[in-house]
Amino acid sequence: MNDSILIFIVTTALIMLVLALAVVLFVVYYQKRITSINLIREKELTEAAIRAEEDERMRIAAELHDDVGATLASVRLYLRMANKEGAGSEAFEQSQQLIDETIGKIRNLSHRLQPAMLQKLGLQLALQSFFDVFNKSGVIYIDFSGDELPVLDENKSLALYRIMQELLNNTLKHAGADRAEVSAERQPGGLELRFSHNGKQGITQERFQEYIYKKDATGLKNIVNRLKVLNGSISFDKEENWYHTIIQIPL
Length: 251
What we know:
Layout (H helix, E strand, L loop, with lengths): L2 H83 L4 H24 L2 H6 L1 H15 L3 E5 L8 H22 L3 E9 L2 E8 L7 H7 L6 H12 L3 E7 L2 E9 L1
Helix pairs in contact: 1-2, 1-7, 4-5, 5-7
């Protein structure tokens, strides 16, 4: 073998070695980059969930202070007047009405924190009651088939209830739908919940990847974070004029 051939072989081997090393370094860099991006996205989702919880606490605190607090202050004044004028006075009757109003306001705030129907009757009847309110309004009709819903623990029930609330609220706000369908199906080792609507627009799997990291997609991020706690997953599909959201959780 002459020197030129030997030099060619050695040079080729070195080039291939350098290329192989470059490929390995690129793969390592790419994996680190993907990991870094995923960590950033996870942080954004967590921060969005925290902001949403804090915003809700602030809204409730404001209602307690501005609405309930002001009403109770009025009750105190009327009771002082009633103490002077007697039990049959107008001030006494007015204070009773204000107390009734305050009880109703506190009850509504409690329902926002933890739905009473969910605690007493379970997820299936709580969802049915929630959907019935909208069915009676005439804005949208929701066909709910929840026969496959099992008895779940309190945390799972509340998470799924809030997810359904969020999906329906988003549908009413953005989709312009007049009909929706909600169903539950038992599967080996898990449960599948399907929320569908006939709105003019909705989320597909492609749009989900686009929306989930937007700053104003708080509702969608809340759903994703609640599903993380349940080790669940969410996917989207479109069939003719219907948009489908499929939620799966292990049991």
